[in-house]
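Friendly challenge for the regulars: who can give me the structure tokens for this chain first? No prize, just bragging rights.
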Amino acid sequence: MDIPAEIADIQARCEKLIENSKVVTAISSLIRIDLTYTDYKKLTVCFRHPEKYPDNSILIELKSKTLSPKLLQCLTTMGDLKAKEYLGKPQIIHVTAFLASYLTENSLCVVYDEIANLKKLLADTSGSEIKLKQKTSCVSLCANGGKYFFKTKVTVPKLYPAEGVSWNNFESNLPVVLVRFLNGQAKEISRKCVEPPLNPPKGTPPFTIQPSLYKTLSFLIEATNDFCIEVCPICLQKCLPENPSDVIVNDTDDMYVERVLCGHVYHQGCLKKYLREPPFVKAGKPCPALKRHARADTIPFSMTAAMANQNKKSKAPNTACSLPLHHDRWGLSPKLAEARWANKQARARELEEVKDFLQ
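First reply, four minutes later:
Bragging rights claimed.
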């Protein structure tokens, strides 16, 4: 079949044979075929005939505004190999069908760069791993930190990245407080990638959708890896026991683990003692950790502003976390805390006086 005959064949059969294909240009100097699956899964395939075609393989150029440049390089190489299988014969429809089949069967091609970056991250994280499930468009994650783990299977939706990644089931041997944080915060990260804020501050740039897979999974990997080395800022001992079977599950126990909004993890007994002893600060007692936590929750501006003013007045070097300690379980105002402390001290003095009298 000569070149004009192949071009006529492409015009007549390509769109019928290859689903989601569209022949844009079909002339002797250029054949362009678009493959479109979603707004973010688009591929333009350009063919040019070399000298002595079809005894030499067709020249292929792949273009896409959404797919990874590295993926396009790999697909170009695979397309060249497929073309060589048909030397001496028309090659364009065969190569196009191969590329279309790849995009259809490899649903995770839209997260090619994110997967590559996650693998780099995992190289520095002992025990953690990811596995790809192309047929179900899922990424299985096992994030490890010491003997602790967090496992889940994340679904990459068809309309990704316009829709964020999601998951329903997970498994972990971390304390329930930390699991709740991991799961909830990761889902919030995914949501924020695709949903604009309801009341953005003035001057905020227009919202743009962002890929959510790497941001979500890197958070799970790094947070899980760090929990086993978190130190209580009060007693300076590790918050979690080395063996997960020794984790305290009784939420009234002093060794029960609590996480506060600034991100730091405390032993419950240490945190209670610290909050109930003077000095009592109007803005809230500052976290005594030596530095800010990498995964702090959002702190109300009024609270951070008050703490900044307090640090400025005290002229103390701001080396510690210094964010106001707050926890949903304890709504203790400075005034009430001070009153309770004074009452406790008064009772102690009364007991001492009775003791002295009896002696």
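Confidence is low (pLDDT under 50) at residues 299-308, 310-317, 336-342. The chain has nine helices and ten strands. Your move, everyone else.
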